[in-house]
């Protein structure tokens, strides 16, 4: 049975302080559970969310996570995450998507790794106008 999108928690979550990172992960986990995702798929979407909100917090000076259900034309249910910041933007997207590249102390798997954890990945950024990443993980 397909879940009713109205029963999947959705909403906007601020990413302004360290504790917001944990709250964002909990919100995504709750939505994934309500959508009926397996534990593996829950882990993948929560890990993707964690990477994106951490990037928004550290590199973008904070931002917003929006979580919500989505359904495609075939009736498949998924979760859409949109993480937006108003930071400096990403000067070289190709380089930022390359494994091993990092502007901080991390391992450099954030954006490229996130793209591999989800089914749909869209990055909208430009220097001086911030970054918005939208991802969707579909329920198998």
The strand order across the widest sheet is 1-2-3-5-4
Shape assignment: globular
By DSSP (H or I, 4+ residues per run), the number of helices equals 4
Low-confidence stretches: 105-109
Q: Largest sheet at a glance?
A: 5 strands, antiparallel
Proportion of beta-strand residues = 25-35%
What is the mean pLDDT? Answer: 88
Distance between the termini: 12 Å
How many β-strand stretches? Answer: 5
Structural class: alpha+beta
Approximate helicity band:
25-40%
What's the order of the H and E elements? EHHEEHHEE
In angstroms, what is the radius of gyration?
Answer: 15 Å
In short:
This protein is α+β, with helices and mostly antiparallel strands and 140 residues long. The protein has four helices and five strands, in the order E-H-H-E-E-H-H-E-E.
Task: Tell me what you see in this structure.
There is one protein chain. The protein is of the alpha+beta class. The chain has a five-stranded antiparallel sheet, with helices on one face. Helix 1 packs antiparallel against helix 2 and helix 2 runs antiparallel to helix 4. The longest helix is centred in the middle third of the chain and has 20 residues. It is globular, with a radius of gyration of 15 Å. About 4% of the residues have low confidence.
Question: What key attributes describe this structure?
Answer:
4 helices, alpha+beta, single chain, 140 residues, five-stranded antiparallel sheet
Break the fold down into its secondary structure elements and pairings:
Blueprint: E1 11-15, H1 18-34, H2 39-58, E2 63-71, E3 77-85, H3 93-96, H4 110-117, E4 120-125, E5 131-138
Antiparallel strand pairs: 1-2, 2-3, 3-5, 4-5
